[in-house]
Design goal:
With 149 residues, this protein is α+β, with helices and mostly antiparallel strands. The protein has a single domain, classed as SH3 type barrels. Strands 1, 2, 3, 4, 5, 6 and 7 form a 7-stranded antiparallel beta sheet that branches. The chain starts with 13 loop residues before the first strand and ends in an 8-residue tail after the last helix. The relative contact order is 0.24.
Length: 149
């Protein structure tokens, strides 16, 4: 696996492009690049050779049309009006429950630019202060700690 320099890791509350792992791929990088929300970034050290790398905990994002309205509660909804400011092309729901997030290595196997957006980097955008407050409230409503333990 080719790790990115840990100093280039995204910030918490960034939206980044990721090949989200699927169970059927044995949690290896998935076939599609999708938007995910960064909830935690940690510096890791390989004990064998003392190399440093970053691990990113991200929440799964999916098009809002794929989610029933009653499931918006407790998750972050980015509306169509907010999409452009965040580098997204459609309304998106970021699922904040623990089962919809993963800790992944900050590596080119998982994090790549979205192919259909010319010259866009891996980071699509960053949540506003108001959106960050909503995420924190959603996590608190679910009884989840933030920052992540």
């Amino acid at each position: 696996m080719e790790f990115y320099d840990p100093t280039t890791a995204p910030d918490v509350f960034d939206i980044v492009w990721c090949k989200w792992p699927r169970r059927e791929d044995k949690l290896g990088p998935g076939p599609w690049v999708r938007a995910v929300l960064v909830l935690d970034v940690r510096l890791m050290v390989d004990s064998q050779n003392e190399n440093e790398w970053a691990a990113v905990t991200a929440a799964y994002g999916t098009g809002a049309e794929n989610v029933k309205a009653e499931h918006f509660k407790g998750n972050l909804l980015i509306t169509a009006a907010e999409c452009g400011l965040l580098g997204l092309h459609k309304a998106t729901v970021f699922k904040l429950d623990p089962g919809s997030r993963k800790r992944l290595p900050w590596a080119e196997d998982y994090f790549v630019p979205q192919g259909y957006v010319l010259n866009q980097g891996i980071v699509a955008g960053s949540l506003s202060a108001g959106q960050q407050t909503i995420v924190k409230a959603c996590l608190k409503e679910r009884g989840l700690a933030f920052p992540l333990p």
